[in-house]
Amino acid sequence: MKKRFLTTCIAILTVLVAVFLLAACSSSVSYEVKESSLKEGGRSAADIVKEICADYPERTMGTGKDYEFLKYLSAEMASYGYPAAKFDTDDGNDTENGGQGGTLPLATSSSATVEITEFRFKNYYTNSTEKGYNLVYRIPAATESDKEVLLLASYDNCAGLEVSSTDMTTGQTTVQKIGGEGAYSNATGVAALLRLSYELADKELPYDLTIAFVDCAENSWDGANELIGSLDVDRKKFICLNFNKLGMGDYAYIYSDESAQAYNDYFYSVADKTDGGKVFKDIPLNKQIAEVKFIDAQKTDYSHYAMYGDNLMFNVHGLAVASFVSFNWECFENPFYTEVAGFENILGSSADTYESLIERLGGEGKGEAVLEERLNAVVLCAATAVSAENADTLFGAVADSDPAASGNFADAAGMYSLIVKIVIIVLLVAAAVWVSVKFRSTLAKKQKEKLERLQKETMNGGRPAPKAEDIFSMGDDFKESGHDDQPKDDKGGNGGSGSGSDGDIFEGF
Question: For the chain, what are the domain ranges?
Fold first, then answer.
C-alpha cells in the first residue's frame, strides 16, 4: 500500500513539473506577419564580407585603420542613395563640415543626414585614452512620427591590437599583432547591415530610421554607449536591431533579454515566416553561461555568448534591442560557447579569417553558398520585421514589452534553472523508489523461496511448517485478533525493540 501510494505521488509530481516546463517553453506569442522579399540585383552580403576581409583586414580601434574603413562604408552607402560623409585628409573628423546631408531616392527623405561622431575612450589594451568613430545616418519618417528604429553593427576588429608574450626559457618578450581579418567578428554583421540598408533605401517608412556603424566593440562597446547618449529615446517608441557575428555559426538566434519580451516573440514570428526553421533556432532554456560579468554595469551576475555584443549596452540602459547572432547553443564542446561543432572557436584570434569562415561552412563553393544563404535569411528577416507593412505590429509588440525591467531578468533564468533542477530531483527520487521497490520485491521472493524449501524438509513441533504467505501476513493477523506473542515488560507493553511494530517483517530495510 505504501509502495503504491509513493509511486503514484512521484508520477503525479513528475507529470505536473513536465506540464509546467512545457508551458514555460511554449509561452511565446505568434504574430501575424506580412511577407516581403529581397530586391533583385545589388551586391550580396556574402560578397561584401569577402571584399572587407581582403581590402580592410585591420579595422582596429585606436590605430587609425578604423577611421579609414569609414570611407569604404560611406562610399558603399552613397552608392545606395544615402548622403556621403565628409572626411579629413588626416586621421580625424572634420566636425564642422562632417554630417553633410544628401538626397535619397524618395523626396520625402531628402532631409536624410550622415554624421561622423568622434569620441574618446580608454583603451584597455594600451591603457591610454584614444579616439573612436561612429558613422551614423538619420532618415526621417515619411510623416512626423514618435517611433524610431535603430539598425546597428560594430565594424572594428582585434587584428591590429598588439599583445606581448614572454618566453619562459629565455625571458625574452616579443610584441606582435593579433592578426586575422575579423571575418566572423564582425565583417559579417557589417555586410548584413549594408545589404539591409540597400533594401530600405527607397522605402517610405512610418518611423524615423537610424543606421549606425559603431567603433570599439572589441574594447567595451564604447561606440554603442556613445551613440545611446545621442538618441531621443525618452520621447519615442524605440527599438534597436543589432547585427553581430553572423553567417558562420551552426544556427542563428534572435536574442533580446533574459526575461520574456513580446518583441522577441515578434521577431521569431517573422523568422518563422521568412526562414521556416532552416537558419534560425529557438533559444534553449539550458543556455551555456559563465559565472562572470562582462562589465560592472551589467544587471546579471552571469554572462553568455549572446550578451557579448553592443546589444548588452541597450540591456544596461533598459532599451528594447533584438540582436541577430550566430553560433551553436546546443553544443557543449567548449565551456562557454561553441561557434561550429567540431571546430575550434576563432573569435578574437588570428584564425578569424574569411578562409576559416568558409572552411567551417563546408569549404570552397559549398561554404560560400551557405554563407550567402544564411546572411540572406538574416537580411530578409530584418527587412520584413521593420517594413512599413509590419511596423504597427512591431511597435505594438514593443509597447507590450518592458525592457526597462531587465534589471530583474536573472529571475527568469533562475526560474527555468529551478524547473530543470526539480525535474532532475524528481527523476532521481523516482529512480531511487524504483530501486528500493525492486530490492524489496527480490528480497521477499528469496525469503518466500527459502521458506518453501524449509516446508518440504522440516516439521515444526510435529506440524507442517507454515506456508510462506501465512508468515508474511502474521503481523496483520496478530494486530487484528489482538494476540501478540511478544514478551511483555512489567508495564504491560511489548518488551525490547519490538514495541510499536506493525508486524511488517521488512521494517528497517
Answer: 31-408, 429-498
